[in-house]
Design a protein that fits this description.
The structure holds two protein chains of two kinds. Chain A folds into three domains: 93 residues, Elongation Factor Tu (Ef-tu), domain 3 (Beta Barrel), CATH 2.40.30; 107 residues, Nucleotide-binding domain of ferredoxin-NADP reductase (FNR) module (Rossmann fold); 39 residues, Dihydroorotate dehydrogenase B (pyrk subunit), domain 3 (Ribbon). In chain A, 20% of the residues lie in helices and 35% in strands. Chain A contains six helices and 16 strands. A seven-stranded antiparallel beta sheet of chain A has the order 4-3-7-1-2-6-5. Chain A has a seven-stranded mixed beta sheet with strand order 11-10-9-8-12-13-16, sandwiched between helices. Chain B has a single domain, classed as Alpha-Beta Barrel (TIM Barrel). Chain B contains seven helices and 14 strands. In chain B, the strands form three sheets. Chain B has an eight-stranded parallel beta barrel with strand order 3-4-7-8-9-10-13-14, surrounded by five helices. Chain B has a four-stranded antiparallel beta sheet with strand order 5-6-12-11, with no helix packed on it. In chain B, helix 5 packs parallel to helix 6. Classes of the chains: A alpha/beta, B alpha/beta. The complex binds flavin-adenine dinucleotide, flavin mononucleotide and FE2/S2 (inorganic) cluster. Flavin mononucleotide sits at the interface of chains B and A.
């Protein structure tokens, strides 16, 4: 059940170039939030600038607090990055369908800020492994506590393995099997799915779409699946990658 | 005790606040946040005879103090509505208005025939902003003769309240409203979304898959208020349901002052999910401050400058 609360920012700090970590006091939401779920985070904007709330995945939820990792990409995320501790903002959550809890091992594949929901999964599940990729070391999020085993890749090779985060996926599946959970750019998720499919393991992805209501009421956030249009906010954001019409998503 | 109830023709609402079509589903989702029975009523998403997939994404885009949408009347059709949503509506203790749209007069008639017997439905809202296939896809709601014929053809099929929801994308909304009332509409709802578009300067592509879309939200409040004012002035006996741009409870009160006997809240819920409930409270507070005993007294209380 979602809650709409006015929540106090208890900490906010930059953790990479253009990326910050924001912690909010939200006991009801924190109690129910599960990895893969998100919140609609709003603004104190009396003249509706911005108008809509922004969907953000939980990167952690414990001790009555929820945490987000946010990359500044536009006006709304820039305003959020300017918040200071003690300010209050509206948040609606938890929303959406969480990642299904894997029965065996889990390989988490996070590209860019898509790592956020996977950090939450990494902290809650038993012995997952996290493959985390960024373009370069400036963008790499500084983690306070790494919840699980983690393998870092950067495209320019400035930290960790050199190349795409999905380059190491085949080897991981070979080594320990398990279910793949991916979140990040569409190209990355599609690649992760293709590798998982080739190797015969399941793959779940967390997708993004512009959202208005965030609760499933407006039909605004749909994506094409093999079973017709589905709402990212309610039927997702987590989908079985085999159900996605990747061609339709690509452009 | 303030009497918040309002009458819209034969229908009595416990308060003047209704949720607008397409922004509330049938109340299931927002119903997890608060009990929809506390509202005056709800209008369902628009139902069509056959299932409709809706338009290709992206379907929405934020704009200055508002948003564009081009959902394309996505819904699973009247059969699935009766099977899946009517049992939910049965539990609601507020006015349950079903919005309907058809591609031609016969489809509207068929929808009324199937829905009229259901006790879970307290009235119909006719969405005339949809394309009329019989007339080359032009919206029904842009031609007074067509609107008149449409209402003429369905009026005999139901005793339940028939509300006609008007599009603002016309030269003279009053003409269309009059045609609907002359043919037996019980109330007029105004307004639906204003046509608009948005463009990404980087890709030079439209922000919406369907290219053009409907503008809603606080940005359209002044337009909506004027349309309500014009309709109420021209048709003082006709109940007007004010829709458009309500972002705060006070905006609903302006609709009522302009002549609306009730209001519908649409996209204002997206940044402010509790807005419908807060608007009920806001109207009550306003009555207390202004020394009114009934919310109905707000309707049409506009004070115009003396000429
Ligand atoms: C389920 C979900 C979870 C997400 N989790 C995170 C997260 O943990 N961290 C993070 O940094 N970002 C996350 N995003 C993306 C984030 O919502 C967008 O970056 C943000 O909305 C951009 O807002 P803006 O005002 O800065 O950008 P603008 O481009 O100015 O936004 C304009 C409009 O487009 C929408 N929009 C723009 N980009 C996106 C996008 N990628 N996805 C959805 N809507 C978009 C905005 O919400 C707004 O309505 C998530 C998106 C979804 C759908
Ligand atoms: C996402 C969305 C979907 C809508 N769907 C419908 C619909 O199915 N039928 C209809 O009559 N109006 C529909 N509308 C229009 C609203 O009911 C309302 O008339 C309009 O948005 C103006 O009110 P607002 O400014 O309060 O949103 C929709 C609006 C939005 C934003
Ligand atoms: S954002 Fe409204 S249905 Fe998903």
């Amino acid at each position: 059940m979602p809650f709409d609360t006015l929540s106090e920012v208890t900490a906010i700090q930059q953790i990479a170039e253009g990326t910050f970590r924001m912690i909010l006091e939200a006991p009801e939401i924190a109690r129910e939030a599960m990895p893969g779920q998100f919140a609609m985070v709003g603004f104190n904007s009396p003249l509706f600038d911005p108008f809509l709330r922004r969907p953000l995945s939980f990167s952690s939820a414990e001790f009555g607090r929820v945490e987000f990792i946010v990359r500044v990409v536009g006006w709304g995320t820039a305003l959020l990055s300017d918040l200071i501790s003690g300010e209050q903002i509206p948040i609606l959550g938890p929303l959406g369908t969480p990642f299904p809890r894997p029965e065996g091992g889990a390989i988490l594949v996070g590209g860019g800020v898509g790592v956020a929901p996977l950090l939450f999964a990494g902290a809650r599940w038993k012995n997952p492994i996290l493959l985390y990729g960024e373009a370069n070391s400036e963008k790499l999020c500084h983690m306070h506590s790494v919840p699980c085993e983690i393998i870092i890749a950067t495209e320019d090779g400035s930290t960790g393995l050199s190349g795409y985060v999905t380059d190491g996926l085949r080897e991981q599946i070979d080594k320990c099997g398990g279910t793949v959970f991916a979140c990040g750019p569409v190209k990355m998720m599609r690649r992760a799915y293709e590798i998982a499919a080739e190797m015969g393991v399941e793959c779940y992805v967390s997708l993004e779409a512009r959202m208005a209501c965030g609760v499933g009421a407006c039909m605004g956030c749909v994506i094409q699946t093999k079973d017709g249009y589905k709402r990212v906010c309610k039927d997702g954001p987590v989908f079985d990658a085999a159900q996605i019409d990747w061609e339709a998503l690509d452009d | 005790m303030i009497d918040l109830s309002v009458k819209i023709g034969s229908l009595c609402l416990k308060n003047p606040v209704i949720t607008a079509s397409g922004c509330y589903g049938v109340g299931r989702e927002y119903g997890e946040l608060y009990d929809p029975s506390k509202l005056g009523g709800i209008v369902t998403k628009t139902i069509t005879l056959r299932p409709r997939e809706g338009n290709s994404p992206p379907r929405i885009c934020e704009t200055a103090a508002g948003m564009l949408n081009s959902i394309g009347l996505a819904n699973s059709g009247v059969g699935a509505f009766i099977r899946d949503d009517i049992p939910f509506l049965r539990k609601l203790e507020c006015a349950r208005i079903v919005s309907i749209a058809g591609e031609g007069l016969d489809e509207f008639a068929e929808l009324i025939r199937r829905l009229d017997p259901l006790g879970e439905i307290d009235g119909f809202e006719i969405n005339v902003s949809c394309p009329n296939v019989e007339r080359g896809g032009l919206a029904f709601g842009t031609d007074p003769d067509v609107v008149g014929k449409l209402v003429d053809s369905i009026r005999p099929l139901t005793q339940k309240p028939l509300w006609v929801k008007l599009t603002p994308n016309v030269t003279d909304i009053v003409k269309i409203g009059k045609a609907a009332v002359d043919s037996g509409a019980d109330a007029l709802c105004a307004i639906n979304t204003l046509l608009g578009m948005a463009i990404d300067i980087d890709t030079k592509k439209p922000m919406i898959g369907n290219v053009v879309a409907g503008l809603s939200g606080p940005a359209i409040l002044p337009v909506a208020l004027m349309k309500v004012f014009q309709l109420h002035t021209a048709l003082p006996e006709t109940p007007i349901v004010g829709i458009g741009g309500i972002g705060y409870p006070k905006d609903a009160i302006t609709h009522m002052i302009a002549g609306a006997c009730a209001v519908q809240i649409g996209s204002g819920q997206f940044p402010y999910p509790m807005l419908p409930l807060d608007t009920v409270a806001g109207i009550e507070t306003y009555c207390v401050i202004k020394g009114l005993s009934k919310a109905q007294e707000i309707t049409g209380s506009l004070i115009l400058p003396v000429k």
